[in-house]
Amino acid sequence: MMNRLVMMILRNLPKLPGAYIKLCRYARHTQRYPEMEKYRHIQRIMSWAIEKGNVELQVFGRENIPSENGYMLYGNHQGMFDAVAIAADFPGPLAAVFKQELKDVPLLKQIVACTNSFAMDRQDVRQSLTVINAVAEEIKKGRNYLIFPEGTRSKTGNQMGDFHSGSFKAAMKAKCPILPIVFVDSFRVLDQKGSAPLSVQLHYLRPIPYEEYRELNTVALAALVKARIQETLDQYV
User: Fold this and answer.
1) Mean pLDDT, the chain, as a whole number?
2) How confident is the model at residue 2 (pLDDT cuts 50, 70, 90)?
3) Are 156 and 51 in contact (CB under 8 A)?
4) Residue 121: what are its φ and ψ, rounded to 5°?
5) Number of domains the chain is built from
6) Rounded CA gap, 75 and 58, in Å?
7) CA 76, 95, 78 angle in degrees (round to 5)?
8) Is the pLDDT of residue 69 over 90?
9) For position 41, which CATH number holds?
């Protein structure tokens, strides 16, 4: 059976070269183009991957997405498909904080430049603090950022790993709303063999306003967000 990633690429092959060239142009001259123009182009590419990859993306809770920008999204991390799903569906614009090892991967490198995303080296405390402060300032300006607080994708499917409390420092510094998101069965898309049709769920949960967590420390906040996500996993898995 064909690998799903290979199938996504082959089925989109006629469109991909032109789309990648355009993305590279956006990345090289990112200040010349409107933010939403760049984001919509990224969304098209991700939507193509979903459509041609035999994946049905079921989305719940779009009404929970805040109407005003300037907030953080925190979600469970099941696999490589998570970023594809959220980029394809989220109305945007959206940036992300991701691990340092991915910063030079083709396609991702250009997306990072277009969205003002940040690579974080968790082994470098000073660099991590710099990223946290930068993200907080960007949120105050009205940008939205995604972090996977597990730090890396789970190896156990729909079971979450530990949440790193440090991931929540940016939200606390920005004093912004938190939008928990939940992926169900996302790991099956690119982290398992095969290309048979399957469904993935993306849930936007009720936002947590700053007033609701302002008295918590990062450890307690991490536990709160994880509990909200776990509740949805328990309901749908």
Assistant:
1) 94
2) low
3) no
4) -100, 100
5) 1
6) 16
7) 20
8) yes
9) 3.40.1130.10
